[in-house]
TrEMBL record:
The lineage of its organism: Bacteria, Pseudomonadati, Pseudomonadota, Alphaproteobacteria, Rhodobacterales. It comes from the Bacteria. This is Amidohydrolase family protein. Residues 51-75 form the Amidohydrolase domain. Transmembrane segments: none annotated. One of its GO terms (molecular function) is hydrolase activity, acting on carbon-nitrogen (but not peptide) bonds. Signal peptide: none annotated.
Length: 76
C-alpha cells in the first residue's frame, strides 16, 4: 500500500467525477492523487511523516490553469 506525502481532511472535495462528485478528504504522493474518499479511508494511507492539512470545512478544488489572461483586466 502506498503512503501519502500529505493528506487534506475536513474539507468538501469537489472531484469533478459525476459518479462521485464530493468527498471528505484527499491523499497526495508527490504530484499525484493517491485517493479521494472518506476521512477514514484517506487517513489509512498516512504514515509517520505524512503532513495532515485540516481544510476546516473549506472547499477543495482541482487545479485550474488559465492560459489566456489579459494582464490588466485579470489583475483588476
Amino acid at each position: 500500500m502506498a503512503v501519502a506525502d500529505s493528506i487534506i481532511v475536513r474539507g468538501m472535495v469537489l472531484t469533478q467525477d459525476p459518479q462521485r462528485p464530493r468527498a471528505e478528504a484527499i491523499a497526495l504522493a508527490g504530484a499525484r492523487i493517491l485517493s479521494v474518499g472518506t476521512e477514514d479511508e484517506v487517513r489509512a494511507l498516512a504514515g509517520p511523516e505524512t503532513e495532515v492539512i485540516d481544510a476546516g470545512g473549506c472547499t477543495v478544488l482541482p487545479g485550474f490553469v488559465e492560459s489566456h489572461l489579459h494582464l490588466f483586466i485579470g489583475g483588476a
